[in-house]
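Please review this one.

:::
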Amino acid sequence: MRRQQGATPQRSWRTVVRLPAFLIINLALLFVIGISTVRESYRGWTVDHEITALEAQVDSLEGRKLQLDSLTKELASSDRIEYEARARLGRKKPGERVIVLEGYSATATWSGDAGESALDTPTTPVRPRGNPQRWWSYFFNS
């Protein structure tokens, strides 16, 4: 049989059933692949975010390590050891006289020349003031 011009070919029922099934299967596969792609992209993003946070933490810890190294070197210096021995243990050099003033800590530092005897910090604790007390003194005390 020959096909006539202008006539539409008839589809068999198998072709009609196969086409939507094929389309539905392809759409389902596309949906599954899309979901897995989005999921993996999200995992990659979270891993990148964690890496960035950990790198920032490494940088801050390296900075802290450098600070601690410099503090260790400072504390190990002979000048610092001598200062601590004088301030905390009451050591003195031969020929020196130690004067103990009551009301001041042993670690208080002297200011000025050897002739001046003004201490920087008293040992009496200063009671912290609350915020309302600070505002009151700001507005009503001169």
